[in-house]
């Protein structure tokens, strides 16, 4: 059995990961695409094997043959498009972050409940094999009680004025800088590993660039299980980082590159490396799992409640700068 998909938004993520997954997965049928640059929707559809292209996303939503949509547009459009997709009876994967604020998340969730459709947020690291393995190690007690976790996510980003992605610097469209853009992914990882957060402190600023949104941010989380987590993100540092370090009372776990999937585990008795690499297309296992959940009417991997929880923590991080 296959699920008929439509794609709204054809930017970098769609080109590199989403469209190839919808084309290649055996449980997906790639019906159609729509994009803001209407003159390019046909060429994109033909490149990735979609059967149709639409001048406006509302036309795509009116296609009764489409059962689900992947929304891959900037954050300021998510709430409106998710609500309209739900009202059209489509199941939905929405790109991260879920929305600009928790109020928009509430609207999206309500629309999906009322119309009986599933909403999943594209936090694909939730299905990384390495993340599952780390959860196993933590549960086993091998490194004892978790004391502290640290994530550093550094992605230098300074596009020219002609680069279309300069919308990332528009607060009304992006909602924030790196903490909103890719920090949200790491917040979801921390929630997945350590559970709910009791208290949050955030420091958000421009350390180097002069922009509407921050170029650097740090958040300190106190989890309900008693451990602490520190997340630092930046688009200003030259050196790239994607690290995860977890320190326990009897050992530690060190991941030098989360997207690579290798971890070093240190205990009193040994030091060992373990490899659990993700799929070459990070999005593909996630889209496949959501598709299966829709076809079998089961739970999606990352539901809207998780998306809302991430948005709530983002609000606390940014809100600390306004008080």
Q: What descriptors fit this protein?
A:
323 residues, alpha/beta, Rossmann fold, Dihydrodipicolinate Reductase, domain 2, 6-stranded parallel beta sheet, 11 helices, 14 strands
- Mean of residue pLDDT? 95
Strand order of the largest sheet: 8-9-10-7-11-12-13-14
Q: What is the domain tally?
A: 2
Helix content: 25-40%
CATH fold-level name of the largest domain: Dihydrodipicolinate Reductase, domain 2
Structural class: alpha/beta
Rg from C-alpha positions? 20 Å
Name of the CATH class of the largest domain: Alpha Beta
- How far apart the termini lie comes to 52 Å
| Name given to the CATH homologous superfamily of the largest domain | Dihydrodipicolinate Reductase, domain 2
Our estimate of the beta-strand percent is 25-35%
Q: Note the total helix count.
A: 11
Low-confidence parts: none
N-to-C series of helices and strands: EHEHEHEHEHEHEHHHEEEEEEEHH
Tell me about the largest β-sheet: 8 strands, mixed
Shape: globular
Work out the number of β strands.
14
Which architecture of the largest domain would the CATH scheme give at its second level?
2-Layer Sandwich
Description:
This protein is of the alpha/beta class and 323 residues long. The protein folds into two domains: 120 residues, Rossmann fold (3-Layer(aba) Sandwich); 149 residues, Dihydrodipicolinate Reductase, domain 2 (2-Layer Sandwich). The strands form two sheets. Strands 8-9-10-7-11-12-13-14 form an eight-stranded mixed sheet. It has a six-stranded parallel sheet with strand order 3-2-1-4-5-6, with helices on both faces. The longest helix is centred in the C-terminal third of the chain and has 16 residues. It is globular and about 60 Å long.
